[in-house]
Design brief:
Number of helices of chain A: 7
Strand content of chain A: 25-35%
Largest sheet of chain B: 5 strands, mixed
Helix content of chain A: 25-40%
Strand order of the largest sheet of chain B: 3-2-1-4-5
CATH architecture of the largest domain in chain A: 2-Layer Sandwich
Structural class of chain A: alpha/beta
Helix content of chain B: 40-55%
Distance between the termini of chain B: 35 Å
CATH topology of the largest domain in chain B: Nucleotidyltransferase, domain 5
Number of domains of chain B: 2
Order of helices and strands of chain B: EEEHHEHEHEEEHHHHEHEHH
CATH superfamily of the largest domain in chain B: ATPase, nucleotide binding domain
Largest interface: A-B, 35 and 37 residues
CATH architecture of the largest domain in chain B: 2-Layer Sandwich
Shape of chain A: globular
CATH class of the largest domain in chain A: Alpha Beta
CATH superfamily of the largest domain in chain A: ATPase, nucleotide binding domain
Radius of gyration of chain A: 20 Å
Order of helices and strands of chain A: EEEHEHEHEEEHEHEHH
Number of strands of chain B: 10
Number of helices of chain B: 11
Distance between the termini of chain A: 68 Å
Number of strands of chain A: 10
Largest sheet of chain A: 5 strands, mixed
Number of domains of chain A: 2
Oligomer: heterodimer
CATH topology of the largest domain in chain A: Nucleotidyltransferase, domain 5
Chain lengths: 245, 342
């Protein structure tokens, strides 16, 4: 089995070709957000290096969010275009699941965090049990203080990774009562190979979708929708108060 | 003798609030033209919300492309090139079409031709007018653009005039909102104006001394708003249809006047209109009349080809393809792309 993996949810752009026994190629750049210009040339480079015939892949795994809205759509549209043209299924890998899979076999709670702005993080809690990734708490967008509280409640050692670490490390150190560590540089950001390796597992479980069906999971509505909902709620509350008065 | 072969182009457009794909043969024959419109979605917000538009594009794009191929009864293997709008427009929206088009072109090893959105609008005129060939003058007026262009040859443009502030369609949207008609303003004002008196109120016609072909619509918009405020202050009611008709006349007068001046100055006997505002019935009628008086042949696309669509991108892509235009895997969305830039 051969999976092509695409990851562009954050600052990292990464493509990989992964088989059951080994990763054939992985190209990861953690530099500037120029995914629109770099992602496909990176894939082309990988294809040339390993003399890959794209028709021989079984599916395209894509990091499906959360993350940068635009970054997710670049990865998603690329995967959808490839899926359409090659007539291959897609595998939607939740971005935080992909990040957690970097830490295969780890005994601690794995806590990937991505900076979600507005003083929040995209996070999820994971652990490895019997060689498989178990989700303790599904990926979500929450304030970092709430994450600290939840982790303290688990009373287990935690390992952190992700681009939220440099942003929130002080908050975590200050608030956590459980033992915690931070993953080193070779495994602390999104990787195409992790998306691909997890993709193989999903594929075997039949967790695929068509290129037409696929769309990113943003975990958040747009600002316009949020503000509209807030306006409507405020109007409703005013009306209720008036009715009571 | 070498057999003449058909060039089939799959075109993709996602620069604003329509997700569209089309298959066009030899730049003039539309084999399919699929448009998924988001207007209903954006009406809730009184205008296009970029993030919502981008989300809708990614949701719909594969479906629209597959429908376009199916309607044209064609597989990707029979397609000769992929054309895609890469600017100007909303960057997040453009990126969806660009990334999708690049991936398809790459996977199928097809040439990729990036297209300027306005070049697409102009080229919409080729589709239903087999006799239309450059040179001609074209007025492109939409919600995002107001350009007076001399089309010197296929793919060769000289911008004669442009708006200094609001686009014509933008003015329609803003005035429609002010007089309570809502979004999208163009068709609504067009409709209501039919019941109103275009000479009821004299709104200003902006002219710039130094640039006789440029447009300005923000002064006109302010004049309409001031008029409404004046009525409200005095406690008088205003006549919605009269305002709409008088405003529309002020826009149409300026568009016609500048266009005809350009036709005369450049000594052209062909004139075309394009863009969403080109479906405005008053504008069409006034342009037809003005062109008849000058003995200039008038061209316009049907309304379905005036709104954002991919058939027009396919028409433009054909001539760019013939001219040798090819884009690489690093093609990016360029939100403020200039016409004639590569």
């Amino acid at each position: 089995m051969r999976i092509l993996a695409v990851e562009s949810s954050g600052l990292v752009a990464s493509v990989a070709v992964v088989e059951e026994e080994a990763t054939l190629a992985e190209y990861t750049v953690n530099y500037k957000k120029t995914h629109s210009q770099t992602l496909l040339p990176m894939l082309d480079e990988v294809v040339k290096m390993i003399e890959l015939d794209l028709d021989t892949i079984d599916a395209i795994a894509v990091s499906g969010g959360p993350g940068s809205f635009t970054g997710l759509r670049i990865g998603s549209a690329t995967a959808k275009g490839l899926g359409l043209a090659l007539d291959k299924p897609l595998i939607h890998i939740p971005t935080l699941d992909g990040l957690a899979y970097n830490m295969y076999g780890c005994r601690d709670i794995i806590c990937p965090i991505m900076d979600a702005r507005r003083k929040q993080v995209y996070t999820g809690l994971y652990a490895f049990e019997a060689e498989s990734l178990r989700t303790l708490e599904k990926q979500m967008a929450i304030p970092v203080a709430e994450l600290v509280e939840r982790l303290n409640g688990w009373r287990r050692p935690v390992v952190f990774l992700g681009d939220g670490v440099p942003v929130y490390r002080e908050c975590l150190d200050a608030g956590l009562t459980v033992a915690h560590t931070y993953a080193p540089a070779h495994m602390n950001r999104q990787r195409g190979a992790s998306v691909g390796a997890l993709g193989i597992r999903y594929f075997k479980q039949g967790k695929t979708e068509t290129a037409m069906e696929h769309q990113p999971d943003y975990l958040r509505v747009s600002q316009a929708e949020r503000e509209r909902a807030e306006r409507e709620r405020a109007a409703r509350e005013d009306a209720e108060q008036e009715a009571q008065a | 003798m070498k057999e003449i072969t058909n060039i089939n182009i799959l075109a993709i457009e996602s620069s604003c609030d329509e997700t569209a794909a089309a298959v066009v043969c030899n730049g003039r024959e539309v084999l399919s033209n699929v448009i998924s419109s988001q207007i209903a979605l954006h009406t809730l917000y009184g205008g296009v919300v970029p993030e919502i538009a981008s989300r809708k594009h990614i949701e719909k794009i594969n479906q629209v492309i597959e429908e376009a191929l199916a309607e044209a009864n064609m597989t990707l293997d029979e397609i000769d090139a992929i054309g895609v709008t890469y600017g100007p427009g909303l960057v997040g929206a453009l990126l969806v079409g660009v990334a999708e088009a690049k991936a398809i072109a790459y996977a199928k090893n097809k040439p990729l031709v990036g297209i300027h959105h306005i070049e697409g609008h102009i080229s919409a005129n080729y589709i239903e007018n087999p006799d239309l060939e450059p040179p001609f003058i074209c007025l492109v007026a939409s919600g995002g653009h107001t350009h007076l262009v001399c089309v010197k040859d296929y793919g060769k443009y000289e911008i004669i005039g442009r708006t200094r502030d609001d686009a014509a369609g933008e003015a329609f949207d803003k005035v429609a909102r002010a007089i309570g008609l809502g979004y999208p303003g163009g068709p609504k004002i067009d409709q209501v104006s039919k019941e109103g008196n275009p000479d009821a109120i004299k709104f200003p016609h902006a002219r710039m001394e130094d640039a006789p072909y440029d447009f300005s619509f923000s002064g006109l918009k302010s004049a309409v708003l001031n008029y409404i405020n004046g009525c409200t202050m005095k406690g008088e009611s205003y006549h919605q249809a009269d305002i709409a008709a008088s405003f529309q006349k002020a826009v149409v007068d300026v568009l016609v006047e500048h266009s005809m001046r350009a036709v005369e100055m450049y000594g052209m006997n062909r004139f075309a209109i394009a863009g969403g505002v080109a479906s405005n019935s008053a504008l069409r009628a006034a342009m037809i009349k003005a062109c008849e008086e000058k003995n200039v042949k008038f061209y316009s696309p049907s309304p379905i080809l005036c709104t954002d669509n991919a058939a027009m991108i396919g028409a433009a892509a054909y001539y760019e393809y013939l001219a040798g235009t090819r884009h690489g895997l690093d093609l990016n969305a360029v939100p403020n792309l200039k016409l004639g830039e590569r």
